[in-house]
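Incident log, structure service

09:12 report received: a user says their structure output differs between two submissions of the same chain.
09:20 pulled the input from the user's history:
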Amino acid sequence: MKLKLILIVFMIATQASLSQDNSGETIYQFTVKNLEGNDFDFNSLKGKKVMIVNTASKCGLTPQYKKLQALYEKYGEDDFVIIGFPANDFLRQEPGTDEEIAVFCEQNYGVTFPMMSKISVKGKNMHPVYEFLTQEAKNGTVNSSVSWNFQKYLINPDGRLARVVSPRTQPDDPSVISWIESNE
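09:34 re-ran on a clean worker, output below:
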């Protein structure tokens, strides 16, 4: 009888551990460089909702910077942050240096949300942050690929990927606003 009870407890514990996300990875494991060349530690964002977006200065979707900035101004005080990652992966639409990107964002869109150093978001030189965002084995949620500039990745306050948002979906889309305002 004792052995049977031990076996039942073991089976329940095993099933519980299998049903949990075992990737053990969160966005908080990363430290990256910002446009000024300083370290930016994602660990400083614990407890906040995060939108990560790959950006480009010479893309038809570049005007999304305006809506991203408006979103940041509206919700930035409410445990929400936007992190921009310039990338030159799509038709060389982000050719500038980090300094040029910073000037462009400030002068044209008044960007005040954190902007990171230019990286690659696809291919053999994909940055580790984007490996995490695009690989289910690392993020525990879904496989995806970055289809174009201004694709958005929504990260829950626990540092885990909540969902992927199409580049053509505007930053202020009702589904995005609903996620920001929810108590998830």
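09:41 both user submissions now match this output. Likely a transient worker issue. Closing.
09:42 reviewer note: Residues 5-22 have pLDDT under 50 and may be disordered. The longest helix spans residues 2-19.
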